Amino acid sequence: MFRLATCSGILANRCFFYIFPDVFSKALKGIPTCYIFACPQDASIRPPLHALVPQGFSREPGLILVSAGGNIRFWDSIGIGLAGGENYSASQLDDIDRDEEVTNLLRTDVSLSFLRVS
Predict the structure, then answer these.
(1) Adjacent-strand bridge partners of 16
(2) What are the residue ranges in the chain where pLDDT is below 70?
(3) pLDDT at residue 98 in the model
(4) Which of 40, 45, 81, 107 could anchor a disulfide with 67, C-beta 3.0 to 4.6 Å?
(5) pTM of the full predicted structure?
(6) CA-CA distances (angstroms) from residue 74 to 30, 90, 98?
(7) pLDDT score of 56
(8) Which residues make Cβ contacts (< 8 Å) with residue 40, sequence separation at least 6?
(9) Calpha distance 43→68 (Å, rounded)
(10) CB within 8 A of 62, min separation 6: which ones?
């Protein structure tokens, strides 16, 4: 089971991604693992949207975070979050207007995701 948490105040630029042990899985036992990532920043106070990106059975998934203002960050592996999550690829939606916000992130395939803008 996965959970994403964000903070306000001093830690407002960080997202905490938790992997909780699954009672049905023998692979994950014990306490939750916390991964820390640098959140995309903009004027919105909404937490970023997120999606895991499967990398196959032998690798940890990647992670996409998208702010309401269209700032995008991608990590090839969530394992990077164990070291603070500073190594990422960044992008920005170019055609988003000031009065628009990203409202949904939908991963439809391993290599294809859609953003909905309102």
Answers:
(1) 5, 36
(2) 1-12, 21-30
(3) 84
(4) 40
(5) 0.81
(6) 28, 7, 23
(7) 79
(8) 48, 65, 66, 67, 71, 72, 73, 90
(9) 9
(10) 52, 53, 55, 74, 75, 76, 77, 78
The Cα 35–Cα 4 span in angstroms is: 9
d(CA 6, CA 39): 9
Residue 79 and residue 47 in contact, taking contact as beta carbons nearer than 8 Å: no
In the chain, the number of structural domains is: 1
> 118 Cβ partners below 8 Å, 6+ apart?
100, 101, 103
Question: Tell me, what's the pLDDT at 10?
Answer: 47
Q: Are 101 and 71 in contact (CB under 8 A)?
A: no
Measured distance CA(58)–CA(31) in Å, rounded = 22
Contact 90, 40 (CB under 8 A): yes
Instruction: Please answer whether residues 15 and 8 qualify as being in contact, where contact means their C-beta atoms are separated by less than 8 angstroms.
Output: no
DSSP output for 55-97: --TTS--EEEEE-TTSEEEEES-GGGGGGTS---EEEE-SS--
